[in-house]
Amino acid sequence: MNKTVAPVASEPVPTVTAANLRLCIIDDEVISLTVVKAVLSRVAAYHVEGFTDPEQALRRCAGFTFDIVLVDYRMAILNGIDTVIRLRALPHYSHVPIIMLTADNDRAVRIAAVSAGATDFLSKPFDPDELRIRVRNLLSLREAQLALMDRAKHLDYEIKSAISKLVEREEELIWRLSRAIETRDGSTGQHISRVARVAEIIARNLGQDADFCRTIYLATPLHDTGKIGISDAILNKSGRLTETEMAAIRRHTGIGASILEDGESDLVKMAHEIALFHHEKWDGTGYGTGLTGVDIPLSGRIVAVADVFDALCSPRVYKPAWPFDAAHAEIRRQSGHHFDPACVAALDAGLDDIRKMYTVMPDDRGAASSI
């Protein structure tokens, strides 16, 4: 059975510990930078990097997330407040603690620094013990923050894994149910697989997004759900159907729609749409509700092309399989009458892929010979 692979959840990230905490010091005074770095480097758990050039520090920070940044206020190239503003503009620095080192006690400077995003201040000249304590306290908060982030990622991984399993089960159920329905009129599982794949190719060549293409691929196998309400005698009749029998066949769109109506998921909603509208015709002469042109939902217009194309290429109790190129020519002949011209053009654009698919997915009863 052909089906898409459910989205794969990303692997959980390793837990962050104090041993990986990294500190960044930005100070254009070499002596001051050396002293701060020496004081903090005495804590074995911390890895410290120092920069005398704030622009160089910002370039490093753009590609690497430090766990705390200490930045001097008075610097020649870029002052501390502007440096903090640019740090906070980096998405991965929105919550990183930043300590402003300053010998300026001006209230306006401190307010500007806080407004820019500074977390704490340390006055110069500083006491080494006070520096270590302030850094230690902020890093304790950072560790707690990282632990929460780590836990959130683990929970996200677990949720995605659970959803992935549910999606796989949903897909399996859809394919098994649709195969059971198709066997009632002499079709094979390959028919629904091919129709689904052709519908996906048409949708993609129409420029639809990945979610739409995946949904139509999974919803298309349920297009003939309503056949469950049609008698075997009619479905498997080898001769020409009477008007009464044709009327009974046409009821399958409404039956399928009633089975699939009121769904909550996008998949079931589209399956309902396809079941009801896939026998509509562009010129309004089809059946279901009698819609015309673009009033027919796009999913119905796409599956109309895919379903008829595969029906022509497949052997049935009442007909042999058409050659691939003859089936394609018939679809093009009906463009603007039975089919949406845009959907036919999208089929044409994907014809090479479709031809290859029919080669590797023939009917069990020899449809490959028709290619």
Give me some keywords for this one:
alpha/beta; disordered C terminus; Hypothetical protein af1432; 5-stranded parallel beta sheet; Rossmann fold; 14 helices; 371 residues; 2 domains; 5 strands
**How many domain modules?**
2
- How much of the sequence lies in strands comes to 5-15%
Q: CATH superfamily of the largest domain, called what?
A: Hypothetical protein af1432
* Residues in helices, as a percent range: 40-55%
- The total beta strand count reads 5
Helix run count: 14
Main structural class? alpha/beta
The overall pLDDT, averaged over residues, is 84
Low-confidence stretches: 1-18, 365-371
Largest sheet: 5 strands, parallel
In CATH terms, what is the architecture of the largest domain? Answer: Orthogonal Bundle
Overall shape: elongated
The quaternary organization reads as single chain
CATH topology of the largest domain: Hypothetical protein af1432
| Order of H and E elements | EHEHEHEHEHHHHHHHHHH
Regarding CATH, which class of the largest domain?
A: Mainly Alpha
What radius of gyration results from the CA coordinates?
33 Å
Spatial order of the strands in the main sheet?
Answer: 2-1-3-4-5
Distance between the termini: 21 Å
Topology record:
Blueprint lengths: L21 E5 L3 H12 L5 E5 L2 H10 L4 E5 L7 H9 L9 E5 L4 H10 L3 E4 L4 H55 L6 H17 L4 H10 L12 H4 L7 H18 L5 H12 L20 H16 L10 H10 L7 H9 L1 H10 L11
Parallel strand pairs: 1-2, 1-3, 3-4, 4-5
Helix pairs in contact: 6-7, 6-11, 6-13, 6-14, 7-10, 9-10, 10-11, 11-12
